[in-house]
Design a protein that fits this description.
α3 (47-59) crosses α8. The chain has a 5-stranded antiparallel sheet, with helices on both faces. A 4-stranded antiparallel sheet has the order 13-1-2-14. The protein has a domain at 106-259. The protein has 12 helices and 14 strands. 34% of the residues lie in helices and 22% in strands. It is of the alpha+beta class. A hairpin with a 5-residue loop joins β11 (304-305) and β12 (311-312).
């Protein structure tokens, strides 16, 4: 059975199979705690195997087994909901829902009425910032261990001078394997300064493809570097429109948070190993952007929500029974299931077979009795 599982998910030639026996539990399920035991402290030579191990874990489909009872009618439901795993289809949908407010923001062009031939600068308080990490400062493991501390220290240093800063930041390992910075953290994101502004000016420069493009820079770039006390190189751009900021954020969310591109898988793998968030957003970032525009669609609130975030009205009492792999569920349902299914329903007999399968304690059950 285990050989069937491995062959179904990964081809036998997969590099992750060299380490697979060390990162699965007694039931054959890959688990992060075992991955951490094997890969930490992370070094650059381990990254290729980590990436393949992550792919294996991400594509190893698992479900939350749930028993629901309607408190008003007594109706019972036996179902399994596909787990949201960093980088998989459920995770991508949930992330899109969380960042969906971008789609409701109306565009504002900040420099629309500015004639830079007559005035050298325009006032700006919305910046796109990239923070790199000098690999000479510390080991790869130390960099990721301290990455969020250093990031928030940078924000606190800015706020000491400029006042409240709202932001949305995306962490990413340096993707090029050619160089000492391979795998080291860097950040891209939007910073909104609520109490300060900077002097923006247009600048023609070359992009990575060598094409000439117009970007907006700020006169106080060096001042921001000194005040932020970031230990490596900083790139700062002034955002000419709210739409530009939105496009930048959506681009990075789609390119590095999920998908099968090398960049996305590397990012997800390293963040998974170190249990880092896919993005960092201040609580009132959305409200801060809303303050820049004339109107925004109101947020509706519901008494209860379904697992996919849609509205619901009936009141249900849900019991979490455990986590079951796609293979366990497929056996119970006699193969009448696809790993692309998000929600599965069971008869009472099928549910009993699924729940009573002897698999040892789930991580939740172990936690409850510890």
């Amino acid at each position: 059975m285990e050989e069937l599982r491995l062959a179904t998910i990964n081809p036998p030639s997969s590099p992750s199979l060299r380490v697979l026996p060390l990162i699965v539990n007694d039931n054959g399920d890959p688990r992060l705690c075992l991955v951490q035991d094997f890969f930490l402290p992370l070094t650059q030579d381990k990254i290729p195997d980590l990436v393949e191990t992550f792919r294996y874990w991400r594509d190893y489909v698992e479900y939350l087994a749930l028993h629901g009872e309607n408190v008003e009618t007594g109706e019972e439901v036996f179902c399994a909901v596909k787990c949201s795993k960093r980088g998989n289809d459920v995770y991508a949908k949930r992330l899109d829902l969380k960042l969906n407010f971008f789609n409701h923001l109306k565009n504002v062009k900040f420099f629309e009425n500015i004639d830079f031939d007559k005035q050298p600068y325009a006032e700006c308080n919305l910046l796109w910032v990239s923070l790199t990490w000098d690999s000479k400062l510390c080991s790869l493991h130390e960099a990721w261990e301290n990455s969020y501390y250093e990031l928030h220290k940078f924000k606190a240093n800015l706020e000491n001078k400029y006042g409240k800063v709202e932001w949305l930041m995306f962490p990413q390992p340096f993707p090029s394997s050619n160089g000492e910075a391979y795998g080291y953290p860097h950040y891209h994101g939007v910073l909104f300064f609520k109490e300060s502004s900077f002097n923006a000016f247009p600048n023609l420069e070359k992009d990575k493809q060598g094409k000439t493009c117009l970007k907006y820079r700020v006169k106080e770039k060096r001042e921001i570097e000194v005040q932020g006390k970031w230990q490596s190189f900083i790139d700062v751009q002034a955002m000419s429109s709210l739409k530009g900021a939105i496009n930048y954020c959506k681009k990075y969310a789609q390119e590095v948070c999920y998908g099968d591109s090398d960049k996305a898988v590397l990012t997800s793998a390293v963040l998974w190993l170190y249990q880092k968030k896919g993005y960092s957003m201040t609580r009132t970032f959305q409200k801060a952007l809303n303050d820049l525009i004339a109107s925004m669609h109101p947020r509706k609130r519901f008494f209860q929500q379904n697992l996919d975030g849609s509205k619901a009205y009936s009141v249900w009492d849900w019991e979490f029974v455990g986590i079951r792999s796609f293979f366990d569920i497929r056996e119970v349902l006699d193969g009448n299931v696809s790993s692309s299914d998000w929600v599965l329903s069971f008869s009472r007999d099928e549910w009993s077979k699924l729940v009573e399968r002897k698999r040892g304690l789930s991580w939740m059950e172990k936690w409850e009795i510890s």
